[in-house]
Amino acid sequence: MVATNLEAVVLPMVLNFTEHVVGIGLAGLVFLFAAYDRRSEVAQDTEGVSIND
């Protein structure tokens, strides 16, 4: 509890920035991985299929 209060008083901006950078950064990486995985899956499913038919 003392550490939490000390953090809130001394480092609020640094901790807030770090939390958002890590949170948004990890969410972005997860999204990129999911998009890549989905793209690979769709490419395998449509291999050899012509879209213009």
Brief characterization of the structure:
The chain is 81% helix and 0% strand. It is mostly helical and 53 residues long.
Describe the structure.
The chain has 53 residues and is mostly helical. 81% of the residues lie in helices and 0% in strands. The protein contains two helices and no strands. It is rod-shaped and about 65 Å long.
**Helix count?**
2
What is the approximate shape?
rod-shaped
* Radius of gyration, whole Å: 22 Å
Q: Give helix and strand order, one letter per element, not per position.
A: HH
Give the mean pLDDT: 82
Largest sheet: none
Share of β-strand residues: under 5%
Class by helix and strand content?
mainly alpha
Number of E-type strands: 0
Share of residues in helices: over 70%
What is the terminal separation in angstroms?
Answer: 67 Å
* Low-confidence regions: none
Transmembrane segments: 20-36
Keywords: Membrane, Transmembrane, Transmembrane helix
Question: Layout of helices and strands, plus pairs?
Answer:
Blueprint: H1 2-10, H2 12-45
Keywords:
53 residues; mainly alpha; 2 helices; membrane
